[in-house]
Structure formats: C-alpha cells, structure tokens
Amino acid sequence: xxxxxxxxxxxxxxxxxxxxxxxxxxxxxxxxxxxxxxxxxxxxxxxxxxxxxxxxxxxxxxxxxxxxxxxxxxxxxxxxxxxxxxxxxxxxxxx
Length: 95
Hints:
Blueprint lengths: L5 H4 E3 H6 L1 H11 L3 E5 L2 E6 L2 H25 L6 H11 L5
Parallel strand pairs: 1-2
Antiparallel strand pairs: 2-3
C-alpha cells in the first residue's frame, strides 16, 4: 500500500458527504486509504475494494502459515516422501 498523504488522504465525514464522488475517484486513482474524521478525530478508513481484497487474502494466508508454523514447532511434520506415499495411498494412485 502506498504511504498516506495527510494533506490529501485525511478527510472529514462532512467533506465526504459534500464531495463523495471526488473522494472516491481519488481513492480509486491512488489506491491509498482515506481516513475519515469526526470532530477532528480519526474515526474510519475507506479502502479501494481491490486493496481490501489483497489485504484480506494476505490475512488468510498469514493464518494458514501460523498454523503450519505451530505444527513445525510441535514436531508435527513428516518428510515429503512420506506425505506423497500417504497421499497416493489415500487416493488409490498407483506407484
């Protein structure tokens, strides 16, 4: 994700109400998130849906990797050769 530009990417909710299309156009053009403020304080973040999907995929992958890392730490591993043998046996693949 690109670095946030405070002068362009921090907007008030009132500004969003008045200039929705312009803000969304900026969001899509830059790929940077828009931080929305309420009463001068950060409140919410708008993300382009493609950027959100990438973050979501990365988060899911991180969860899978964390589980795999726990298995390694606990010694729940086997060699690739053992895995392939078991895989073939379970699916009745010859060889």
